[in-house]
User: Fold these one by one.
Assistant:
Number 1:
Amino acid sequence: NTYGPADASYQAAGGIDGLRRLVADFYRLMDERPEAAKLRSLHAESLEQASDKLACFLSGWLGGPKLYSEKYGAIAIPAFHAQWPISEQLSQSWLSCMQQAIALQPYPAAFAEYLLAQLRVPARRRSDRSNALRPNAGRRRCLLSSRTARGFSGSP
């Protein structure tokens, strides 16, 4: 795969400017889509900080500069998301908004597919964790390679 090594994914996304466009479209879609209302309600009225945090996080996750940690400090994704009950419906809503936002970008089709596939991994993992907290929830396990578990930039 040509997108995993070094900063290839970050470059394919258009660097930080491209990621900011992606994130702006993502949150605009979340605001506009009635089916994303529950997901939107988990966010502050202003999406300015959430947008900056997501763009900065994606920068490092895609192999670019570690802007999130430089600006906001270290982040433990499971602990960060533990403050919200992330259901399968919310996870799918997030992925749907992101899929539509990705489709709006001038990405090569192969990169768009790759990016969405990689974003599905943590979204499903988060939803699976929330389902595991409910005693009668159906459980499914995501088997992750060590590379996928680290993110897909190839960095540890």
Number 2:
Amino acid sequence: PPPPPPPPFQAQDGIRDTRTCLVGSEMCIRDSIYNGGSDKARVEASIREINEARDRYSERRKLVEEEVANAWQEMETARERYVYLRDQTAIVGEFLDFARKERKLGKRSLLDVLAGEADHLNAQSNAVAAGVDIHVATYRLFHAMGKLDIDLLVQ
């Protein structure tokens, strides 16, 4: 709040001292010097409010830092998972090719080849889902940093 207005002044100029014939001034300031401790209480309340605001700021800052760190870790984990599942898809694909060749030679049953195809499709599906998880984790990171913008989503 703004400071209080100045106290009212009363002055009488031109008062003449009849004994010494001096001209002087008289001033009266009307303001209460002691307000029953209310001034001190207001100052203490303001100090408490400032300290509470600092505490809230510090707490929020810690929460944001933690949220960003968690989002970063989630993104890194999603990337590692994607690499793992992509490599697994390649391995299952190689096995499927090998099973098909053996089937032509009569060393594998049709059931083995079909199971290999199902495994390959599942591995591909998991790898694609992991790729989507990378994008979701990246958006969460941008959100945690306060940088998520509509232009980012349009690209």
Number 3:
Amino acid sequence: VSQSPGSLGNNTIGDLITGLDSVIAVDKQQEGQIETNLRKWNANVFSAYRFDEGLLRGVTVGAGANYRGPEVLGRNPATQQMYWGHAYYLVNGMIGYDFKWKKTGVKVQFNVENLCNNNDQQVLASAWNSTANRLDEYYYYLLPRTYSLTTTFDF
């Protein structure tokens, strides 16, 4: 026997309203709270300067930073204690050189990601484990310093 869409099953309308009230009450408790596994503060900045004349003509230098604020890992539902992860930052740098080769524009660029080699452990995800009464965390490490060299040709 199949039920038609909108069927209440074995529930009364009163049962459904009570269940909906419970869901709304849980949502209201979380109003104004920061969502778990998110960072409230993030910032990125990067700037580059190209020399157009003189001895360094065609050279570009640049640097930037990425900041990630502390992460909300979770909340103990019994005590409302908040658990926080750590903030971190990454610094990146680059140097490039533009020149002409047989009427073709050439740009060679050397990049360094994670210049300071920040290898902090970070929490990828977390959830409150009510059975064990603890916060379960799953970790990752920031990528180590990396280098890349690129060449671009403009025809």
Number 4:
Amino acid sequence: AVLDSASGLLFHSLRQLHADGFLLPQDVNDIHCRLRVVGSYDELVDGAAFIIEAVSENVDSKTEVFEQLGLACVRHRVVPKDVVLASNTKSFSPGQLGQRLPPEYAARIVGARFIFPVWLIDDVELRRPDVSAPGVDVIPSGAGASTSGAGSSSC
């Protein structure tokens, strides 16, 4: 019930962004269908290629999230090169956040800070990992990132 409630709240927020003129009607369902609400780190890492953390700007909280993500990745034998771990932070380096992870996962942490207000600014500030794994370039040189920018949800 909690997960359904969270998904419903996300959908309601998307519809409100549409009502306020920040999203096109077709974007509400499209965005909602790309989101997955899960109840555990194990569910989260299953099949994920890009995981972004957006907890409060507290290094202990963020480090704990990445530690739990790393443990779940190890349990599920997630190949490090198949997943990018990202943090929506402006205060902490990827190296700080990955200090409790095995090096092959720590090398996959990038900073991916959404510029506020996210519904008006399409840019995402990317920060390379502090460490690198052999043969891995999480953010190729010259790469940038951006986003593009209601009814019922039907995925």
